[in-house]
Amino acid sequence: MLRLILLAPLLCAAAEIPAPSTDVAPKGQNASIVFAGGCFWGVEGVFDHVKGVKQAVSGYAGGKRDTAHYETVETGRTGHAESVQVTYDPSQVSFGKLLQVFFSVAHDPTQLNRQGPDEGPQYRSLIFYSDDEQKRVAEAYIQQLNAAGVFKHKIVTDVTALNGFYAAEDYHQHFLAKNPANPYIVFHDLPKLQQLRKQFPDLWK
């Protein structure tokens, strides 16, 4: 697999943004949400370091099971986006806090059908919700951030129902942790971890 390494600006989204004004009420000790924000290596790497996250899994969402394979998804014609399923303990980290991390350091929510050097609909920004409360909070947060003018450009993140999540191939799982010297990781993803630790020291693990 080849990832492009371009000397393009790093995350313009790496800025401090306000927390959501509304949140999902905690229910039990297990909840999950699926985020898509460009290459799943970096998104997964960020959430692997968030306190309260029990598991982050790279995968595909938005398309059908039979096309949930890397080589097929990379054609950009499957409807899938590279995604990360985040399983967390709501008593330790709230849904709203995960949204704040997603929008501030995990990716740039103003880039349409791309993220950094990676282009195509498989790299689009999405929140795949599993219930109406997640949908309500996510949509309200996007409105809040747009109204506050946090970013120079409008947020393009879609909020859509999760119809299926399919784990990616084994070699994609925890790629950042296993390959910290990979040039793509060094240039595009390690800065996300630096921002996470700087902006959310209480969440860092």
What does this entry look like structurally?
- With 205 residues, this protein is an alpha+beta fold.
- It has a single domain (31-194), classed as Peptide methionine sulphoxide reductase MsrA (Peptide Methionine Sulfoxide Reductase, Chain A).
- 31% of the residues lie in helices and 20% in strands.
- The model is unreliable at 5-13 (pLDDT under 50).
Summarize the structure.
The chain is of the alpha+beta class and 205 residues long. Helix content is 31%, strand content 20%. It has a single domain, classed as Peptide Methionine Sulfoxide Reductase, Chain A (2-Layer Sandwich).
For the record, what CATH class applies?
Alpha Beta
Poorly predicted residue ranges: 5-13
The radius of gyration over CA amounts to 15 Å
Q: Termini, distance in Å?
A: 29 Å
Write down the domain tally.
1
| Number of beta strands | 8
Major β-sheet strand ordering:
7-6-1-3-2-8
Helix content: 25-40%
From the 3D coordinates, which CATH architecture would you assign? 2-Layer Sandwich
What is the H-and-E element order? EHEHEHEEEHEEHH
In the CATH hierarchy, the third-tier topology is known as Peptide Methionine Sulfoxide Reductase, Chain A
Mean pLDDT, to the nearest integer, reads: 93
Structural class: alpha+beta
Which strand-content bin applies to the residues?
15-25%
CATH superfamily caption:
Peptide methionine sulphoxide reductase MsrA
Count of DSSP H/I helices:
6
* Oligomeric state as shown: single chain
Largest sheet: 6 strands, mixed
Q: What is the overall shape? A: globular
